[in-house]
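Model it.
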Amino acid sequence: VVGFNLEYTRACAGSCPKIVVAQMCVRDHVLLYHYCLATRPCERFSSFIKSSDYKFAAVDTTNDLKALKVSDLKCPNLVNIQHHYKV
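Modeled.
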């Protein structure tokens, strides 16, 4: 399980949120990927989040899914833990 957090631009009327930073956490390790600074798409990042070998956990995926779509990225194993673990 990979903790997955996206920071994205604020969507204005008629626009979609775009990914700025992707943060991934596994145990004590954190990787920050400054997506907005990439000069071309990163195939390794895309392959990693597309992999069926991992589950990516996020608190609320509503806008994350929109930002991923706008960025032409797919994360089929993105789990919204807010829906799975209600208090």
